[in-house]
Structure prediction request, 486 residues.
Amino acid sequence: MLAMNKVLCYNNLGVFCYTKDMLKKKNVKNGGALFMDNENNELNIQQIRKKRVRTQQSIVSLFSIACLLFSCVWGVHAAGSSTRFFAPSEPDTSSVAEADAKKKNVKKTDSSSQQEEPVSDEQTESSVSHDENDDLSDALFIGDSRTVGLQNTCPYPKAVFLCNIGMHIDTALTSLDFTLSNGNAGTLIDAVSEGSYKRIFINLGLNDIGWPDTQIFIDYYTDLINELKTVQPDAEIYAEAILPVTAARELEGDVINNTNIARFNEAIEQVCQSTGATYLDCSEAIADENGYLPEEASTDGIHLLADYCDKWLQYIIDNT
Amino acid sequence: MSKRIISMIMCAVMAFSAAALTGCGDDSSSAESTAKSASADKSVDVSAVADKLFNDIEYKDQLVELSEDKVEAVTGISKDKFKTAKVYRGSGATAEEIDCFEAVDEDAAKEIYDSLSDYIEKQKDRYADYAPAELDKLGKAVIVQNGRYVFLSVSDDDAKAKDIIG
Prediction:
C-alpha cells in the first residue's frame, strides 16, 4: 500500500511512484488523466499492472519455448551432419557395392590388382615369354604426360619415374621441375644423379612434334642422352619411339597426328645411331593393324588407359 | 519471488538460444574452420571418402587407384607422414585426381596440406601451356585439412567434392 502523500502514475511504459510534491513540480493537476488519489483507482491500477505482467510473462514464456525448440532441432541437425564421415569406420555397403560394380565395368582400374586379372588364351601365349622376375628395380623412366600415366598404373613400385605433364625436349635439361632428396628443386640431371640405374627409358617428343624442323629436336635429344651417359655411365639408354594417337584424334586436324609422329620417330632413330642409345618402338604392343592407337585405349586419343599402359610396360620388360 | 526465478530461467534460455543462433551464422560463413575443430579428435575412414569421391563424381579421365607402396613415389609425400592413404590418379589426359590422407598427427597433416597446395600450383603452371582447359579444374581444386586428415579433389564438380569431404 502506498502512503497517502504518494500517488501512482502510469503511462504506456509502466507504473511509477511519485510524491504529490513531485507531481506539483511537474505541473500535474488534481483530477488530471494521470492523477489518482483514491483506493478504487489504486485497485484498478493494481489489476491492470497484474494483467500486464501476466501478458508479458506469457509472451516471454512463448518466445523462450520457441527458442528452446529451435535449439533442440538445430542441435540434432548439427550433430547429424557432423557425423556423416566422422562416424567410426563402419563401411558404407552401398558405396562399396557401387565401387565393386564400377571396377568390374572398367575391368582394370586398380593397379594393385592388375596381376590378378584373368587373362585370355592369347594373352597367356604371349605371357610365356614374359620375364616374371623383372621388377624394374634397375629402371628409370623419363617422359611426359604419357609416362605420368604409365607411372600411375605401373605395378612395380621399385621402378623410378622422372616425368612431368607437358615436358619438352628443349627444356628437359634446364627446367627445375624435379624435387630432389634434400627437398630442393632440381633439374632432370640432378634428379637422375641421385640414383643408380641399369636401364633408362626416354619417352619424349609428343609435345614437340609441331616443330617444323627436326634438326633442333635431334640436337636437344642428343644433348639429353649425352648428359644421361655422363651421370649414369653404366646404364643402357633406350630412346622410345613416340606412340601413335587414335584416328579420331588425328581428325582434329592439329599437329598431333601419326604423320608428324613418324617424322619425329625417324629423328629419334637418327639420335640413337649417333649416340649409341637403343631405339625402342613399343607401337606394336598397342597399335591396331593400321598403326593407330585403338579408340578404346584412350579417353583423349593420346594418353593410354590402364590396360594399354600394361601392354606398353610388358613390351618394355620383354624387350629390354 | 518465484516469478523472479522463472523470469531468470527464461532469460537464461533466451541467452542460450541466442548463442545457438550465433553458432548457426558461423556454420554457414566459415564451414571449413568449423569442420577442423569439430573433427580434430574424430576418426575418419579416408578410404571411404576417397571411394565416394571416385564413385559420386563424374570424371572425364579413367582414374586408377595407386597401390599403397606407390603413394610416396607418386605424390612425393614421405611415408612417415601418414598412417593410411588412398590416391586415385588418371592417364595424364586431365588434371583430375583424388588424394586422401590420414596423417600421423596434425603437424604432419599440415605438411601434407602444404605439399598438396604447392603441387596444385605447379600443376597450374604445367597445364597452362599443355591443356589450358584443365586450369578451370585446378583453379577450383578442393584441398581440405580436417585435423589429422587431408583431402584433395580435382574435378569439374567442386561443390560435390566439398559436400563429400565435409
The longest helix of chain B spans residues 2-29. The two ends of chain B are 49 Å apart (CA to CA).
